[in-house]
UniProtKB/TrEMBL annotation:
Keyword terms: Glycoprotein, Hydrolase, Lysosome, Membrane, Secreted, Signal
Major localization class: membrane
Listed GO CC annotations: extracellular region; lysosomal membrane; plant-type cell wall
Protein name, entry field: Heparanase-like protein 1
Known role: Endoglycosidase which is a cell surface and extracellular matrix-degrading enzyme. Cleaves heparan sulfate proteoglycans (HSPGs) into heparan sulfate side chains and core proteoglycans.
This protein's encoding gene: LOC125508021
Amino acid sequence: MRLWSLLLLVCLPTLILSEDYSDVTVIVRGSKTIAATSDEFICATLDWWPPEKCNYDQCPWGKASILNMDLTNPLLAKAIQAFSPLRIRVGGSLQDQVVYETPNLGSPCRPFTKASSGLFGFSKGCITMERWDAMNDLFLNTGAVITFGLNALRGRKQIRKGVWGGAWNSSNAQEFMEYTVSMNYPIDSWEFGNELSGSGIGASVGAEQYGKDLVALQKIVDQLYENSSKPLVLAPGGFYDKQWFAMLLDVSGPNVVRGMTHHIYNLGAGNDPHVANRILDPQHLSRVSDTFRDLQLTIQRHGPWSAPWVGEAGGAYNSGSRTVSNTFLDSFWYLDQLGQSAKYDTKVYCRQTLIGGNYGLLDTDTYVPNPDYYSALLWHRLMGNGVLSIDFGGTSYLRAYAHCGKQKGGIALLLINLSQNMGSMVTVRNDLNVGLAQGQGITRGSSFVHGLKRTVSWVGSKASDGLEKREEYHLTAQDGNRFARTMLLNGVPLELTEDGDIPPMYPVQVSASSPIYVAPLSIAFVVFPDFEADAC
């Protein structure tokens, strides 16, 4: 063991020999789960914004809209297929101005155009059934799981600035849904409206009327899918407002809204110069937990048949930050928020966007993956549904999340080091044997040397020969530049192959009983396939 520990020190990054680092002990409680995500927890959005959508003297959408993106680009298909499957949410700000080219539309089917009198400065826009067919070709060929956002303003009238009243006119949406069913296009869930909850963004609708309209939508779903598996009905696709959300559940009643979708943009505006600093501020990152916790309680009290979903989250709003959202640094916010949301029973987390704006998982022009794409893919492949409780002390700049393992059993641990100059030496223990360890004189917060001296496996209650292995995936920035567009996995750049395929993402195998070194400004996924966790 002493010889192995010397080899470990040699193999650790050379930074550890010259940098300060703190000892941290993470205790994983594997006897029961505290929450559960869905199989398609990782989700990405496709939006309606046309090329003329501009913010802060830039127009970052190009041809990345539902209406004009290149659906035949092989990089797009390969990026979706790699998740096997990826949930895609089709929707966005212009969703409530979209009409569908059905037989009784009664007007020409035209795309969005600039219009000062329209919501968000655009006219109504239309999707042809030919385009919808082409989109479904992509979805079917890639195995995507689809959530589609319906226009919830159709038929309403503006009664005062920002407030719309009257009942929803479902006729155009129902014809679109009928066509979708007739073509056997699989829809996992129909979402009703976008950012109309509470005071709304651009427009709002009262919760009581919204709840009545959702009952009408559920009846349409029941009728169209009478003899088949019924898609879920989701709502409201807006920012959390406790009173509004509670009333919506009360009015719509049991088993109507099966997913309460809410939006999060907690980093500020896309041109805010403090976005980067907020990403590395643990106190700022943690504040969003209040929203997750409050929504979870609202659902438990008013609609236990439902569940929380993050229907859209892009970090910085108004198309994201051009200097941050498509860089390595953004993964610190993104992965941390995935971890926080999962702890509060969030079933799905939809990232704004798959492609489009500055915050796309794929580059808007080239379709080449940005760093967050690989972060999402690693989470999807490694972090299972079951969420585990952990205890750990030490610096607040180290974030830690534990789930049941997805593919190999055991557990998967996500470690995020927000510190720019302090590494962390992390010892992982199973709560099954913490008492035994303390009886041997090894205490919580024990040093690196003590951690290497122990003779009991920390992955379970049974004695071990010390040969168990764990798998480590360390993510760092190319050239140490936190704003790099290329991310390294265990020192190797994550880049498409010559054929445009997503590269293999191999871990390094390490003795399970050794501590984990998490370098400054780095992220580590660590899989313990032999970890004894009854809940998994």
